[in-house]
Amino acid sequence: AIRKDGEEVAPPGEAEWEYAARSGGKTERYAGFSDQSQMYRYANVCDKNCFFSYQTVSQDDGYKFTAPVGSYRANGLELYDMTGNVFQWINDWYGSTYYQESSKHNPRGPAGGQYRVLRGGSWFLTPPYVRASYRLWGAPDTRFYDIGFRLVTLPDSDFTKIGRGKGHPGESPTVFPVRLPCHKVPLRTFAATRERTNLPEND
């Protein structure tokens, strides 16, 4: 898509999203933190306010459904809501075994497929399902009350160049958090590893 100012925008790639969520590729379990007891400070999940029976009663993030963007602490890249609130669409097609077969350096996702990747978790999920490593997928035309998006804009207006060549383009892309106007945070491409993308359930 092209914005009014001429910049090309698109959802981030899966490796790019995870790099950003983990505050620049750190070994964080969630976006900006790893201690589950701190969840309510950083994320909107199915806490004591949630009406589902599987609610996490030890957490109180203050909202029963979605929360306004920026209601919680940002991660190490000053990005908000990378954990919980709403799932975020990813530009990559989903492949269940893709990361067992792909390059370890800046994988760009399968060439095609039926479903797109969703990351980040949402307000009606519990902590295990909002981890930075958790992957979901959906048909591109899916609409639901816990799905949203954020966009990456490229100075060179060529989304396909990200992650190619040496893996670190001369001009880094920028993340635009949803509904946070003019909030730009540099995002380097992430040399994702198979291990990082396929973390076990407790990581």
Question: What can be said about this structure in brief?
Answer:
The chain has helices spanning 14-21, 39-42, 98-101, 194-197; strands spanning 8-10, 87-93, 116-119, 135-138, 147-148, 151-154, 174-176, 185-186. The protein has 203 residues and is mostly beta strands. The chain has a 4-stranded antiparallel beta sheet, with no helix packed on it.
Structure description:
This protein has helices at residues 14-21, 39-42, 98-101, 194-197, and strands spanning 8-10, 87-93, 116-119, 135-138, 147-148, 151-154, 174-176, 185-186. By secondary structure, the protein is mainly beta. The chain is globular. Residues 157-202 have low confidence and may be disordered. Strand 7 (174-176) and strand 8 form a beta hairpin. A 4-stranded antiparallel sheet has the order 1-6-7-8, with no helix packed on it. The chain has a 4-stranded mixed sheet with strand order 4-3-2-5, covered by helices on one side.
Strand content: 5-15%
Mean pLDDT figure: 77
What share of the residues lie within helices?
under 10%
**How are the strands of the biggest sheet laid out side by side?**
1-6-7-8
Q: Tell me the overall shape.
A: globular
Return the string of H and E elements.
Answer: EHHEHEEEEEEH
Structural class: mainly beta
Largest sheet, in brief, is: 4 strands, antiparallel
